Amino acid sequence: MIKSTVYDCSLIELSKHHHEKGNITVVENNLTVPFDVQRTYYLYDIPGGESRGGHAHRDLYQLVVAASGSFSVTLDDGSVKRTFVLNRPYQGLLIVPGIWRTLDDFSSGAVCLVLASQKYNEADYIRNYHEFIVYKNNGIK
Questions:
Q1: Segment 15-25, tens digit of pLDDT
Q2: Domains and CATH numbers, the chain
Q3: pLDDT per residue as tens digits for the range 26-42
Q4: Which of 53, 100, 46, 54 is nearest to 70 (CA)?
Q5: Residues with catalytic annotation?
């Protein structure tokens, strides 16, 4: 059985350095995030009413940040669901492996920044919810 739960995922306060000319937030490997960032990508121009995500990862850790605007992230471990609203660029949602995620409710102009612990690997994805439940219950990789 894959034991990760939605309670292993948490909001992380990122350092916010205020300056009269604008703020800056710094993210550093193994200091700010508990992994080495191997890939960074961002989602933007998401049409109203659309969802993103809808999958889980076997081994990948992610830190999800609302770099601009807001959106909600619903996490599901096969038993419990938790929803987080991300709307501050100095907060990130740490998502551990073995958690199904769905991103919804994107505001106009929202930018979702994702820092990932691994390079893209299609074999790491679980894209079918039934297969995810089997994986969680039986530990099948």
A1: 889 889 999 99
A2: 6-138 (2.60.120.10)
A3: 998 988 899 999 999 99
A4: 46
A5: 55
